[in-house]
Amino acid sequence: MAPLLDSLPLLLLVAGIGLAIAEALIPGAHFIVLGVALALAGVVGILLGPLASPLVLAALVLGFGAASLYAYRELDLYGGKGVARTRDSDSLKGQTGRVTERVTPEDGQIKLHEGGFNPYYAARSVRDEIPEGTEVMVVDPGGGNVVTVEALEAIEDPIDRELAKDQHEETTSDPEATRDPEFEEEI
Fold first, then answer.
1. Stretch 31-50: mean pLDDT
2. Is residue 19 part of a domain?
3. Domain region containing 17
């Protein structure tokens, strides 16, 4: 029975490493929490030597498991809060990205900045051709398979229009605002 107890910390370490490798092969399966707990308990058990009874090892697994679960949730290793959630195609509207293949009204491809697991989408332009590398915004998600995009530089929102209108009104209504005092001093 003694040889089995001596090898228990080593068994925990090997099992923990095996689960960590399984997590690398199957991301998102949450094997990493148990793998880290078992591996750390195994390492501490090896360091403790004969003091590592099965009860101590069980307590270590529970303690390291709770700590690794907390760290796993807080660090959010898989890409940000809520990114792993399934979203509908309407959530694509307003997303920005970059053209990866020239986009025309009939053909093209974009990569959304926050596009999820596969950020590449077939795209169509509203009017003209959009060259590769141009920043775009989704204006119509179109069911999610093929999105309609517009170049960001071509999109003018209501705030931009109001600012331009106010600037135009200021320059046309106040001739003093358009005069250059330095120019007048020279005359």
1. 91
2. yes
3. 2-75
63 and 111 housed in the same domain: no
Residues 46 and 8 in one domain: yes
How many folded domains does the chain comprise? Answer: 2
169: pLDDT strictly greater than 60: yes
pLDDT in tens, 68-81: 988 888 876 655 55
pLDDT tens digits, one per residue of 111-120 = 988 766 678 8
Tokens 């003091």, residue? 51
Question: Residue 1: which pLDDT band, with cuts at 50, 70 and 90?
Answer: very low
Q: Of 53, 39, 44, 40, which Cα lies nearest the Cα of 6?
A: 53
Contact 59, 12 (CB under 8 A): no
Residue type, 27: P
Same domain? For 26 and 50 the reply is yes
* DSSP annotation string for 99-164: EEE-B-SS--EEEETT--SS-EEEEEESSS-B-TT-EEEEEE-TTTTEEEEEEGGG---HHHHHHH
